[in-house]
Amino acid sequence: MSEYILEMKNISKSFPGVKALDDVSFNLRPGEIHALIGENGAGKSTLIKCLGGQHMPDEGEIYIDGKKVDITNAKVSRDHGIGVIYQEFNLVPAFTIAENIYLGREYKKNGMIDRAGMFRDADEILRSLGQENMSSRTRVYKLSTSQQQMIEICKAVSAKSKIIVFDEPTAVLTQKETLLLFKIIAQLKEQGVGIIYISHRLDEVLELSDRITSLRDGKVTKTVDNSPDITKDDLVAMMVGRKLDAYYPTRTIKPSEEVVFEARNFSLSGVFSDVNIKLHRGEILGICGLVGAGRTETMKSIFGVLPHDSGEVYINGKKVEHVNPHQLIKHGMVLLPEDRKNEGLSLMQTAAINLCIPNFDQISKRGLINSRMRAQFVDKFFNLLSVRPAIPNRLALNFSGGNQQKLIIAKWLARNPLILVMDEPTRGIDVNAKSEIYNIMNDLTTKGMSIIMVSSEMPELMGVCDRIMVMYEGRFIDQFTRDEFDEQNLARAQSGIPVHVS
Amino acid sequence: MKKKFNFFTWLLDKREISLALFIVIMGAILSLTTDTFFTKDNIFNILKQAAITVVLACGMTFIISGGGIDLSVANNMCLASVVLCIVYNATRSDILALLVGVVLAAAVGALNGVFVTKLGLPPFIVTLGMSNIASGLALVVTEGYPINFSNKSLMFTVGQKSLFGIPILILLIPVFTIIGQFILRKTVLGNRLQACGGNPVAASLSGLNVSNLKVLTYTIGGIFAGFAAFMLAGRINSGNPSAAGTVGMDAICAVVVGGTSMAGGGGTVIGSMIGAILMQLIKNALIQYEVSMYWQTTVIGVVLVCVCALDLIAYKAGEAGAKKQ
Q: Which of A54, A72, A92 to mutate to test the interface with B (most CBs of B within 10 A)?
């Protein structure tokens, strides 16, 4: 009997033009939480897809419980006891929870499908994972994201998986939901399930894992046992090969007293109320809050994408008469949305086209696009933010998350905005690219721009912002200046306990 | 405001109940406001007219629930009915004719399925093309003239006679509905067909052979069309290449009104049957109120759009409920 429930030995996998995995060896013990870290593009997804049956390795072997296996497709993977919980859920929205859990393994009774039995057993699984309030008869499209993730976990548990892979599970969860997830992971660990945990959130990795393996450019850089001595800096060093000492740029300027943007008395029934925001020139204002507090909705409403019941917007002291994106952009305010892929870019078009979309006035003469002006424009902004690879005619889809974000920033920079509203600008982006974006943000403020940043990552907010406003259930509950930044207090405020009582 | 929506979405969820209720209410209004509606002849008429649409809609439920669509079922049925008649005239065997008709229609359906899955062509275009092909072939085979056959055939009996005082066409409505409903909702196979429509990626990752299952949905649609062809030939006592009319669109409308979302994954055959009867009832209502026949298609179109809009509202309300949590 092998000490390892999973051994991946010398796995290599190439795609046209890139070697995604290069002689990667990785193993997992039963009841162990083994974290897998690495920048985007390091090979984590590819490795997991080999486990999940979506890719076949070119070289190398996989052993489960000491036996060599060939994982040719998803069903084989599942039959071997592997359950992968991807970032994009694979659920049938019109089906009930039970039908989703048992898809492909449906219960039969007298030759007919036995839904009653599936409902019964699915409810049992929900109960065993602490979800007594969910009914397996509920249709999945009615569930929230975190609940849908729970169903994915149920699928893996129901299939009696011995190995469960979590791919960035907390990216879409609130703090409370994350705690619940950790409890469930602990429960699974106790039952002897081997867990592979992929995350960019190094705090979580340090908190949860027994061992940590980092990948860089398709190779394993290091596998370490977790211990109190290991710091986030160490992990970052493992991933990028050098210590990033200036992870957050020092704020080089102080915001002025001048109020460049003000939102007064904004409210939207049932979503947020009494929103009053003042932004000073050169300031980076952070807005934090648990998922569901209403941050994104507030910013979208101020920007005119969502409606508002009341409220006024003032830019440089002047009231904006019609609150809609067109007017606000004209007045110098731009929004970089949270859902980068669907709302920030046209993924199926080239990076060049994406850059040009709001900027046709800068590349055209008399209504016709001038190709020389366009080429110069595209080059200028590609270089300005070091978008890589510097291939403007590549589809936006094929750029990494960090570079996609840079494209969005570049697109708006061309309009010389006064105010940038950035909603979760570094979500799902690797460490190096994050650092680049923080530097860009700092740089923009030295040039007179002001930024409102919505984020769920406390360390990021504390590292980058001058001031943080905390939102809780649709209202701003507290505010902290830079010298008051404290992770505990911010967390308390986020959960409804203000520190400053006004 | 919120409470109203909950009843509303419940009503849309329990589609069969609300549709049946709607039919009852409409029937009641029509009975009270006209004296020609609530007669045996009229009711039988409605159901006889609806019968073929029902059978096509039963098959169409599989296709739409499976995430696809088939614009060629009506012409497929026409072609099959024409071939049916030819076979009957040549062999005097209803059974053989039925067999050939069903197999032919199933093959056309399967062909559609193969083009959609293996060649990856969009269902709308492929089946549109196939619709023309089938219609053209029917005309070629008959040289434009309807084919007559004996009124001693089983086909004629089925299409025109009654059993226990009820036209056989009407008796066939519950037969095909029950068979279709059983396959779709009571078998593991049916469940898997719906899964492929609801989320083909999830279905594939669960080990289902999505492309084969999708081809099967189109084939089932074809099989039902084959039976409908038999019923059609019987009803008009001929194999007529131009007999399709709007019945193809009616079938699609019936399926959507009956609760099967175009997005795939949901729906019941019973809902489609009720939807088909409802559509026919609406057409009859127009006749009762002496509205020009030309308004029929317009009204059906309006009903379809309304149902789609209501469906979307209900879906969004369901999703929004999740976001509140």
A: A92
